[in-house]
């Protein structure tokens, strides 16, 4: 596979994995928790390095996953104690991320854990770090990691689809029916954490947040059926990744940043021209209705 195709494949896998958890987060009005998790994993990364003095991928993954899950737990604790959800996210996000930044600047300044890389990522380097596994050679490590996480997300979605659906739309009814709402909440937070961690080093925090929020929000404007939301969200995310890469190549700019920009443009298009929710379409429909009533 060519250098370009490895980058596009990696970004596409990230986009689909993020869009799966993103749909559920958007429906639960918890989308911005992805922003908190995708930033606070920096604390987990630098903590793992300080403990092991190694940049081993497994240690980094475990450390970041723990940080992501702790972020979700702390936010839930503050929320349960009466702190508003957005305030709880802001407090935990800024506090843990700031600690991570301080630790990086104090103890890991010369290590590949710089803040700029954490925020923007660098997809251009993905094809150079390969791992031979299952008899397959030359596959980038990021592709293996993200593929595994994507499979896990798909399996969990199929196994708990009905439970996720009901608890997302009506958590009180779900609890009354005996569905483990709290378990599903932390399961979703765990899915979000491992997805962000697996994507973090490859694409950076900005693209992770963009892919988790923008494609599902766009799909939400295009359909009211949950199954179609997952499909539309994945398609929009992949299109954003592919178009973002080629625009970045044309303009000689950051790949992840351009992909995130494309997710915003797709959302803008849906916001304006969605058949049911589009602002422009609604105005045209209202004018047509007014004109028809005047003619009658």
Give the gist of this structure:
This protein has 296 residues and is mostly helical. It has a single domain (3-295), classed as ABC transporter involved in vitamin B12 uptake, BtuC (Orthogonal Bundle), CATH 1.10.3470.10.
Share of helix among residues?
over 70%
How many beta-strand runs? 2
Rounded to an integer in angstroms, the radius of gyration calculated over CA atoms is: 20 Å
For the biggest sheet, the summary is: 2 strands, antiparallel
- Which term fits the overall shape? globular
Domain count: 1
Which sequence of SSEs, written as H and E, runs from N to C? HHHHHEEHHHHHHH
Total helical segments: 12
| Uncertain runs | none
- Distance from N terminus to C terminus (CA atoms, Å) equals 63 Å
CATH topology-level fold name: ABC transporter involved in vitamin B12 uptake, BtuC
CATH superfamily heading: ABC transporter involved in vitamin B12 uptake, BtuC
Average per-residue pLDDT, rounded, comes to 84
Organism: Geomicrobium sediminis
Subcellular location: Cell membrane
InterPro entries: ABC_BtuC-like (IPR037294), ABC_TroCD (IPR001626)
Pfam family, one: ABC-3
Question: Can you put this structure into words, describing what you see?
Answer:
- There is one protein chain.
- The chain is mainly α.
- It has one domain (3-295): Orthogonal Bundle (ABC transporter involved in vitamin B12 uptake, BtuC).
- The chain is built from twelve helices and two strands; from the N terminus they run αααααββααααααα.
- The chain has helices at 3-27, 33-52, 57-80, 85-107, 115-120, 141-159, 161-169, 171-176, 181-222, 226-251, 255-273, 279-295; strands spanning 130-133, 136-140.
- A two-stranded antiparallel ribbon has the order 1-2.
- Strand 1 and strand 2 form a beta hairpin.
- Helix 3 (57-80) runs antiparallel to helix 4 (85-107).
- The longest helix is centred in the C-terminal third of the chain and has 42 residues, at 181-222.
- The chain is globular.
- The termini are far apart.
């Amino acid at each position: 596979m060519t250098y370009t195709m490895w980058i596009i494949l990696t970004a596409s896998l990230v986009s689909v994995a993020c869009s799966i958890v993103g749909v559920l987060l958007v429906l639960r009005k918890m989308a911005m928790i992805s922003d908190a998790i995708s930033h606070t994993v920096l604390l987990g990364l630098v903590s793992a390095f300080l403990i092991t003095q190694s940049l081993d991928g497994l240690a980094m993954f475990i450390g970041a996953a723990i940080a992501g899950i702790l972020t979700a737990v702390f936010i839930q604790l503050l929320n349960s104690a009466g702190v508003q959800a957005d305030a709880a996210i802001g407090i935990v996000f800024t506090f843990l991320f700031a600690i991570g930044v301080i630790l990086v600047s104090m103890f890991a300044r010369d290590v590949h854990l710089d803040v700029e890389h954490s925020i923007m990522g660098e997809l251009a380097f993905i094809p150079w770090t390969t791992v031979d596994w299952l008899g397959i050679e030359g596959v980038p490590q990021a592709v293996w990691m993200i593929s595994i996480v994507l499979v896990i997300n798909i399996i969990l979605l199929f196994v708990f689809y009905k439970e996720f659906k009901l608890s997302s739309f009506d958590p009180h009814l779900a609890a009354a029916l005996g569905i483990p709402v709290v378990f599903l909440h932390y399961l979703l937070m765990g899915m979000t954490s491992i997805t962000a961690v697996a994507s973090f080093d490859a694409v950076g925090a900005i693209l992770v947040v963009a892919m988790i929020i923008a494609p599902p929000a766009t799909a939400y404007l295009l359909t009211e059926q949950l199954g179609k939301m997952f499909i539309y969200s994945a398609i929009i995310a992949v299109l954003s990744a592919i178009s973002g890469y080629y625009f970045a190549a044309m303009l000689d700019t950051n790949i992840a940043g351009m992909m995130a920009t494309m997710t915003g443009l797709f959302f803008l298009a849906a916001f304006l021209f969605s058949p049911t929710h589009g602002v422009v379409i609604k105005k045209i429909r209202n004018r047509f209705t007014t004109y028809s009533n005047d003619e009658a």
